[in-house]
């Protein structure tokens, strides 16, 4: 396995410089699809971490019974109660939900799916259709949590889509690997090599196998993120990672369009490698934010504590590079 760590100066090329010429949305419009009656925190963490890193607009597309709760968490999020569980399917069909989501996807630069989705068959079918619609628009996609179960059941929904990032934890990775016929026991294939094979079998998607070290691979290249994290394993940290990945992917779309001059002298990032660089940057920041939160809160650390450190982690890693490029004063 190639043990590569991209330079921070290279990652910084994906970050838009803040200038007085920017308009709302220039730094990214993103959405988190998920959130049901039982799981309202997960999509909140995805969308909020995206905003804290610098996305301009963050939507949550959730089940209607989750919407009011998520709205109450933050006025910064735009909450769309489009999804319907089986219990609530009477007032909106799957086709109608699909038509509601489509215009929103047209506005976005990246989308995530799965956080707080749950096991409801109606909800999963809506997400399956949303993934298909995102692929048709060539939107970057982050798949985590319950959306990974959809990939395990039907790999074709994401296979061959190089603009996708999957973020499985060890149990999710084991299930996905088994479905694809890849050994993860360590006796036949070490887990880091298994991640590379899984990415290959899925046709070049980027896989982030979370763990003591995060293995990031598109099947050809491998990055390893061993940034020191905190010692707490509270629920919700994976959602923060999804949100961070979402923001860097959205910035990557702007980077492809040449929307700004790179903020470092590093070699340009190949467009095909943007998902890997976005995922590595997100892993680095999520782990560092976890470390900062644990240093402050110890055993009392929660994902809310980590969220509060996301912007500080960003400054710690990128501030010196970004300060080299100052916007002109009015």
From TrEMBL:
Binding residues annotated for ATP, in chain numbering: 210-214, 229-238
EC number(s) on file: 4.2.1.93
YjeF C-terminal domain span: 7-317
One Pfam family it belongs to: Carb_kinase
Subcellular localization, as worded in the UniProt entry: Cytoplasm
NCBIfam families according to UniProt: yjeF_cterm (TIGR00196)
Family of the protein in this entry: Belongs to the NnrD/CARKD family.
The name this protein goes by in its record: ATP-dependent (S)-NAD(P)H-hydrate dehydratase
Native species: Coemansia guatemalensis
